[in-house]
């Protein structure tokens, strides 16, 4: 374990109007952190648990088990009941593996293999970049090749419940990375595709948000979007200013936009993006955050008022994340940039309390475990910081493998998927 101390840097604050700061206190900040982790970044994408008894950072004696995975992938683990679900794939043949492991022992419970077709991927992508989701009855996952997008449901014993293999082509220069999410009995898939930056002769795709009945796989609604570049964020559920239950998305063509959960009807959008959006929208109080960027830089995080006219309140264009999704604790927003710079922003006034270079290239998203902030670089270095208004580093853990998946947090354990392994730290308790 390596522990280092660095000097805290302060950046001048950009203050919001007094009226907006006053209005902030009248609306609750995000749902309470939960130990339920049945989708990407946990319940409603909050990426936070209020309590975590796992030593952070940990030592080898705290590792409950470690298992080699078949193939490789960026799919993050989820847990339902006493089982862990995730995907992996053969990096050469593109054969997909849908996997289930026992939480207590790490024993493989079942595996389903699906042949596929090799095709071009981004260097940091994989044939298994979809994080499944689950409820008490089933787990759901998806993958795609250029000629087919497939969505499947399995019961917890691995039996196929239904398959949708009639969802059309998938067009992207980077590969598939969408993760389905559940909202009650509704299964939602953000099917973002490309019409720009395509090789000659490749027909543009059609972006859309698709909603299915989780029990049957029947389409409930299908809302077309403006197709430009493939975007990969997972939607957030919230109550719109209209009073309707809604889902919040972000893409290049439509910007930040909201759809009615019941019908898929567009409620509003705020266009402001010129580059790709990879991270997921974040909601803190009355502010929604989305980002854009590219491998060459120019990353921007936008803050949009969820009330009134959905105006852009402020933006962050220094050390903003592109792939990693920000995470919040109360009125503190933490940004973990792709090049390892971590920032703490006081909301709603956009006051940067500290900004520190932790280092490393980062593709996974940061998490909050109680009063600690966790982030993992691609080289497998996990860094533990204080999730507070003052910068403090507790130490690091070297995982010695590539990591692009986002870990799973629980009160009693942490699950980490590296390129080739599944690791459980702590003491999982089975039901």
Tell me about this structure.
With 431 residues, the protein is mainly beta. 2% of the residues lie in helices and 40% in strands. The strands form 8 sheets. A 5-stranded mixed beta sheet has the order 1-27-28-29-30, with no helix packed on it. A 4-stranded antiparallel beta sheet has the order 2-33-32-31, with no helix packed on it. The N terminus is likely disordered.
Task: Give the structural class.
Answer: mainly beta
For the biggest β-sheet, the strand order reads 1-27-28-29-30
Please give the number of β-strands.
Answer: 33
The shape is: globular
Which radius of gyration do the C-alpha atoms yield?
Answer: 20 Å
Separation of the first and last Cα atoms: 33 Å
Helix content: under 10%
Number of helices: 1
Low-confidence stretches: 1-23, 25-32
Provide mean pLDDT, rounded. Answer: 92
Q: How much of the sequence is in beta strands?
A: 35-45%
- Biggest pleated-sheet summary: 5 strands, mixed
Q: What is this structure's SSE topology?
A:
Elements: H1 18-24, E1 48-49, E2 63-68, E3 78-80, E4 83-89, E5 96-102, E6 108-114, E7 133-134, E8 138-145, E9 148-155, E10 160-164, E11 181-183, E12 186-191, E13 208-213, E14 219-224, E15 236-239, E16 245-251, E17 255-260, E18 266-270, E19 282-284, E20 287-292, E21 300-305, E22 312-316, E23 327-329, E24 332-336, E25 341-346, E26 351-357, E27 367-369, E28 372-376, E29 381-386, E30 393-398, E31 408-409, E32 413-417, E33 421-426
Parallel strand pairs: 1-27
Antiparallel strand pairs: 2-33, 3-4, 4-5, 5-6, 7-8, 8-9, 9-10, 11-12, 12-13, 13-14, 15-16, 16-17, 17-18, 19-20, 20-21, 21-22, 23-24, 24-25, 25-26, 27-28, 28-29, 29-30, 31-32, 32-33
């Amino acid at each position: 374990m390596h522990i280092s101390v660095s000097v805290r840097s302060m950046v001048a604050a950009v203050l919001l109007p007094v009226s907006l700061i006053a209005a902030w206190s009248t609306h609750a900040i995000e749902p309470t952190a939960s130990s339920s982790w049945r989708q990407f970044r946990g319940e409603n994408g909050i990426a936070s648990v209020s309590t975590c008894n796992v030593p952070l950072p940990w030592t080898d004696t705290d590792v409950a088990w470690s298992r080699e995975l078949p193939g490789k992938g960026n799919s993050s683990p989820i847990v339902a009941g006493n089982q862990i679900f995730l995907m992996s794939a053969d990096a050469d043949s593109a054969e997909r593996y849908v996997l289930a492991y026992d939480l207590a022992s790490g024993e493989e419970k079942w595996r389903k293999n699906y042949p596929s077709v090799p095709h071009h991927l981004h260097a940091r992508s994989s044939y298994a970049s979809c994080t499944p989701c689950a409820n008490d009855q089933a787990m759901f996952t998806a993958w795609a090749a250029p000629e087919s997008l497939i969505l499947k449901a399995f019961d917890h014993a691995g039996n196929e419940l239904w398959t949708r293999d009639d969802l059309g082509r998938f067009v992207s220069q980077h590969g598939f990375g969408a993760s389905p999410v559940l909202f009650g009995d509704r299964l939602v898939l953000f099917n973002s595709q490309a019409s720009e930056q395509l090789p000659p002769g490749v027909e543009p795709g059609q972006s859309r948000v698709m909603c299915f009945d989780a029990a049957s796989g029947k389409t409930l609604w299908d809302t077309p979007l403006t197709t430009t570049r493939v975007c990969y964020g997972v939607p957030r559920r919230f109550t719109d200013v209209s009073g309707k239950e809604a889902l919040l998305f972000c893409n290049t063509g439509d910007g930040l936009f909201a759809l009615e959960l019941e019908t898929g009807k567009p409620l509003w959008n705020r266009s402001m993006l010129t580059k790709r959006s990879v991270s997921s929208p974040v909601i803190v109080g009355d502010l929604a955050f989305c980002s854009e960027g590219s491998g060459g830089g120019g990353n921007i995080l936008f803050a949009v008022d969820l009330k009134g006219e959905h105006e852009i309140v402020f933006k962050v264009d220094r050390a903003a994340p592109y792939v990693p999704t920000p995470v919040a604790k109360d009125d503190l927003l933490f940004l973990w940039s792709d090049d390892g710079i971590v920032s703490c922003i006081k909301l709603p006034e956009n006051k940067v309390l500290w900004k520190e270079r932790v280092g490393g290239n980062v593709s996974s998203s940061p998490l909050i475990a109680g009063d600690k902030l966790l982030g993992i670089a691609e080289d497998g270095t996990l860094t533990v910081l204080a999730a507070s208004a003052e910068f403090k580093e507790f130490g690091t853990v070297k995982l010695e493998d590539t990591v692009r998946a986002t870990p799973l947090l629980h009160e009693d354990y942490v699950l980490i998927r590296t390129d080739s392994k599944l690791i459980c730290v702590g003491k999982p308790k089975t039901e």
